[in-house]
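Hi support team,

I'm filing this because I wasn't sure whether my run with 2-oxoglutaric acid finished correctly. The job status page said complete, but I'd like someone to confirm that the output block is well-formed before I use it downstream. Pasting the exact inputs I used:
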Amino acid sequence: MGMKEASGQFTFENVLTREQLHYFDRHGIIQFKAFVDKGAVAGFLREIGEVENYFLNKGISKVNGIPLKFGRDVDGSPLIQRIAFASQYSSVLKEFLLDPRLAALTALLGKYEGRVGENEKDGLVVNHYVNTPVSAFRQLGWHTDSPRDLFLGRRILPMLNVGLHLDDCPYANGGLRVLPGTHKQSFFRLLFRKKYFIDNNPDKREVGFDIEAGDLTVHDGRLWHRVQASPLQDEASRRRVMYIPIITGAYQPKTPDSRTPFYHRLGQLSLNPSGARTSLSALLARNDYK
Ligand SMILES: O=C(O)CCC(=O)C(=O)O
Ligand SMILES: [Fe+2]
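And here is everything the job wrote out:
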């Protein structure tokens, strides 16, 4: 891997190669170019738009206990910046989750048996970042995706977060930044390497990616990562990514009766007027991690 931009760009051909498995094991992240074509990207964006309209029109604010994150678009219209369980509202998205190539990615879990978590955790998540004068969702501080398991009373198991990128995002436009190799850190470092979600500072060892719409990234849930804000504004800053969890362990589906996890409820209470939070409450309150 280079200093800044990750050098490892691969093509997925139905089955993972030894080189790809090795690369992922070593770095905890891998990028596949053009996992889907531009037509598929356009189709997914259309579906997401419809799911979003459905929620907005129905005044739905939570799915299976997970709050939607609302914002405003460039033109001032309402926007949902984080949708959970999106595939439960779209047959096109649901079908994508059945793509055998996604199932093939479970090989990245090594000895663990993995499955696509359509109805578990937060299901298929859609993140939508855009810089506008009023946008509250333009970046994401350093975190791993693992501690949530602890708050749910479970042991941390390996998991994969599979990101299908729906906008072009060259390295210079911000986007995903990771600390390669940190998926193999100690439990202590997993919890305390950085201040969860508070710390937005670049790290000299971080790497980012040249992403084109249709690319796929897969990261180990234990890897430290963040989202760098785009230096651009408005339309040019738009970044949409769908995340599919590939998980192990006991099947724990969520339903409309599922309680909102307590860190989400804390999130609704603990935002003080300046928007600043203490590090522990930020970790607990984080409105949108998997
Ligand atoms: O938007 C991304 O690429 C990363 C999002 C993320 O890390 C998260 O939602 O936990
Ligand atoms: Fe994350």
